[in-house]
Amino acid sequence: MGNVSCILLSGGIGTRMKLATPKQFLLVGGKPLLVHVLERIDTIEEINEIIIPSPKDYMKHTEEVLNNFGFSTPIRCIEGGATRQESVCKGLLEVSNEQSIIHEAVRPFVTREEFVELIQNQDEAAIFGLDIPFTVLGGNDYIEENLERNYLINVQLPQRFPTEKLLAAHLNATSKGLSFTDDASLYFDFYKSRVKVIKGSEYNLKITNPIDRNIAEVIYKEYILGGNGNVYNV
Amino acid sequence: MSTMSKTCIISGASRGIGRSIAIALSNRQDITNFIIVSRTEDGLQETAQLMNPTKNVVYYAMDLTDYEAVQELIETVGERYGSIDYLLNVAGYAEPKSLLETSVENWEMTYKVNVHSIFFLTKEVVRFMKKTGGKILNVASTAGSSPRPGWLAYSSSKAAIISMSQTLSDELSEYGILVYCISPGRCATELRRALAPDEDQSTIMQPEHVAEIVDNLLSDNGICLDGQDITVRKQMTKVSSSK
User: Which ranges of chain B would DSSP assign to H, the alpha helix?
Assistant: First the structure.
């Protein structure tokens, strides 16, 4: 596979964490979440372009963070959209490679090896996913249906798609007013084609709620510094 | 950290402990390039002459409290040699006074040399070192962990170095950077001579003793000693009298 672009979603404004600082700038292990991911991506030869859709008010701060840590891969910070979906779409319009990886800054513990596995996978599109270890039911205030747990996937990022096809699916969704919470479901809804699910990791935590930050510190110390995700093991 | 052509930066290398460290490390096989830095050109030149002549030694007489100058230096070094493998922050300043005699200028100068310069150098060096891993060693003092009436600015600045070292040890571990902190006790330096002119310097720890410890720490022997405040001092022994 040739060169790959990465759209790194960094569009949070910190609502669910109830913080003035958006999640992507929160410190874990002493450095911003955004930096954790970028430092791993920066070591992957195939990824030669990174696009970061960012809230307009935080673009300058994002660029300062990028400058302070000094990455080698060319990174462009663009103004994100009003929704996650719109941010991805705007990012895709900036991409110059045939393949794009979609990832988010608030999943800081994806290893270099996992990124490489995603890139080297031969399927047209691939994502990371996990089995669901608990019962999931359909409904809101009352149960409306039973769901077959063995058939459900806990969808994770990063995800890889052919850029042009994902962009076409996005433009279609936009024109029809369809909204999706991730790109695998958007892509599958449009093409109904096979999207490979690579077994993900429990450590690929999405930092969403305040307690996740405490969990993240433990994962960082035990898993990343413990050697599993440490790409600087010199 | 396995290549044999490493690059090492040493601040405060024009005299005392810094000079001894520069001389000792110049006899290591793994380091090829030395960048020695301090305010005093004459002292640096003398240090360079005392170092192993087979090594590439470059000296810069500069003010380490000038952030822009530090940025320029490290960028030059990083780009010329490709990596920076060792940083030794040895430069120090002391003008001990009681609280009521400590001027604002004295306080600020002590912090600028002892604390700010370490921050400046470390921040800029890590931009390069994070790509390859490396070792940073900060020279604090036993004054940083115990009371020293009359040394408020100096001792508190050395306490800051101990704290910085401990924090950086954790923060930089993902990059394979080990951060060491040594706290020498009484040592026979020019600085010490000025502060304790009546002392017989032959009876106390010599800069070479500290350099030997540093050389050991930066070898494989030191892999379990990072992130700690390591006291380096010579035990006073009773001179035995013959009958």
Answer: 16-25, 41-50, 67-81, 104-111, 117-129, 152-171, 190-195, 207-217
